[in-house]
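Why do we care about 3D structure at all? Because function follows from shape, and shape follows, mostly, from sequence. That is the central idea of this module. The next example makes it concrete: a single protein chain, its amino acid sequence, and then its structure expressed as tokens.
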Amino acid sequence: MPPVSRVKWARFRVTAVALVSVIILCTLLYELFGGVLLGPKTVIYLFIPDASGLSDESPVRVDGIDVGRVSTVELSRSKDPARAVKVMLLLYRDRLDRIPGDSVAQISSDSLIGDKFVDITGGTSPKAIAAGGEMIYKDQPELLRSLDLTQFTRELRLVDETLTDIEQGRSQFGKFYQGQTFYDDLLKRMVDLQKAINAAVSTTSVVGGLLSSDRLHRQASDLLAQIDQEVAKVQSGQGAAGKLLRDSGQYDQLLSKTQEFRRSIEAVSKNDLLQSDSAYVEANRTLAVLIQSVDELNRNPQMTTTVVYDNLNGSLKELQDGLRDFRLNPKKYLRLKIF
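And the structure:
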């Protein structure tokens, strides 16, 4: 028989482990349910036409978040068919102020065969729904109610025709699925493409020669080497560009000429003819006098007739004839008469 002290120690360890387990379990439940499992709740009523699929303990969600559960589902004894079933919703009190008063509820499910739940869509009212109030119900048509059977039959017929074409090989995919021609044609094209690629990368073609030899690499290397040499010359001060970068004399000379040209332009701009109106008026007056003189000379009778021109022309012709005669027979004009 074990000693009493060991038995007491074993009981103490079992009790401590049990207490720690209970504390951990309570902590997990609190974290899992957000502290609302045992929190205060309030009741909201919902009237629906039928409760097919809805039962006690069905979840209640607001915009996808659980806020409570269904407490009871019973007949309301109302003569209104839309209010035939009375559903009592048990909601967490601390989440009631997050549900606007104009929110609407629907009976939804996660899938076509899933369990039903009360889906509340939040409204826009600034006031929250009051405890013990009534939730607005919005009917959600079933799939078969909203489905156009004629359109559904037409879509099924199209699907059946498509499958028939595939099975009989009338479509392109059917030919590929049933026959060998489409596959052979595709395989032939792939072979032709492979041959074209092989021909392109072969050493006898231009592209293949460039890919298989280092000629293109050498050309690029030579070009880069030339560029590097030119840059090195510029950096060392060789050539016009190098001198311009290394020596500021050309830059200073160009700057000096530019400044002189600018001073010349400033001097021209300071001319009296450009600066004052008097010089412009005087030059304009001089031009007017010159124009008037030309007009008077043009109106002169001697300028309007050809008499003066004819006289001058005749005199010049006589002078020309005389000079020609003097050149041919100078003795005629150089005779000396002795008395």
